[in-house]
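Write out the bound-state structure for PXG.
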Amino acid sequence: MPAITNHLPTEELQALDAAHHMHPFTANRELGDKGVRVITRANGVMLYDSEGNEVIDGMSGLWNVNIGYGREELAEVAARQMRELPYYNTFFQTTHVPAIALAAKLNELSPETMNGVFFASGGSEANDTNIRMVRTFWELKRKPNKKIFISRRNAYHGSSVGSGSLGGMAAMHAQGGLPIPGIHHIGQPNWWSEGGDKTPEQFGLDCALELEQAIRELGEDNIAAFIAEPIQGAGGVIVPPSTYWPEIQNICDAHDILFIADEVITGFGRTGNWFGSETMDIYPDIITFAKGVSSGYQPIGGSLVSEELTVLLGESEFQHGYTYSGHPVAAAVALENLRIMEEENIIGHVRDVAGPYLKQKWEALTDHPLVGEASIVGLMASIALTPNKENRAAFASDPGTVGLICRERSFANNLIMRHVGDRMVIAPPLVITTEEIDMMMERIWKTLDETESFLKTNDLLKSRA
Ligand code: PXG
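---
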């Protein structure tokens, strides 16, 4: 039996949405005028809208529905847990079985150096926890001046005041007085857009050395941590040159600062390992996680922390927590999600089947006249659209104009593909089959062809001077 709202005609749903629903990261009046798409159900990698269209979800929801839609087991576990214990807190000397079991499971799956876990309801909350936790850690170590976080431009670490400040999104910082003090941003290893005449290797090294320089300028005694996504997700699936991470790791090792890997997107199989830190061969002190831990079936996230932090922070009361830290239903669903991922060897599927298959098809996109660079790790991938791949030119139009056109064509072709500026991004559910990859690629080629003709017709195929 579908939900009652599914019986309303699409226009009525759209009108109600336009009247009362304030969407995240959206110009709401414009969307209201255009008419929002109403998603009514989903199965596997497919979404269905209120008009009956079947759409390939090339973004796994918002990079989170890793095991795909429609898994009955997760619904059953949620219902069972709601009947048995829908909620209890973990603040006042109590705990419950789902939180215990999930903490233990995460300890088992995460890199050897991780030990404790502090739960939150998503990535923004978890990164806010990290700010408070890391500063408290240094206070306990009697180094209270170590307060500054070094992050990167164009990073995404969430949308709350703290996590939005950690992030490096210029458009977000332009509103409401962000970033808060004590956050320092360095460059991102985006060779395609920013590498100039350097080789990718030289550029990657130079970007890493910006961290060394920032530490020197700000003073090691004032720096709490460096935070970064192993592969920038919302920033456009920027895969750093091979020289970048080894040098960053060396710099973190050589200085008395903590290293936080924000694995909200790269965690739980996305890159072909449980964590992107394994794929990129990096050794963080803290891992931020969310999204894929529950495949988005319930909101849950948190911070995995090294033994040293776990022990020291455990010596006294850390004045921090959320009502929903370790929520029993969310924890039970996450556990079931992880059980399925293990039992069905979904990570093996990414690493050995879907990942390599998509990589071959994805890299062939550079044969298209509009596509400059094609980047892919596991099942996260991007292409840079360009009017001239020889000199990696940007379009003459405002950044994002062409990307938006391409995204609109993609939607019209029943494929959800995201744009970040003039880069196109996909991150399909990890269970995607090779047949579904073929179907997705067919829609991508069609979308690119249609975008190219649109640009030609509208005189937009021009390079910025
Ligand atoms: N860290 C990273 C690396 C993320 O990608 C967050 C933290 C924040 O998580 P929550 O659960 O608070 O949203 C994220 C979230 C996009 C997009 O359009 C990406 C995210 C969120 C919303 C939109 O790519 N990533």
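---
The chain has 17 helices and 15 strands.
Residues 62, 122-124, 127, 156-158, 229, 233-234, 262, 264-265, 290, 301 surround PXG (CB under 6 Å).
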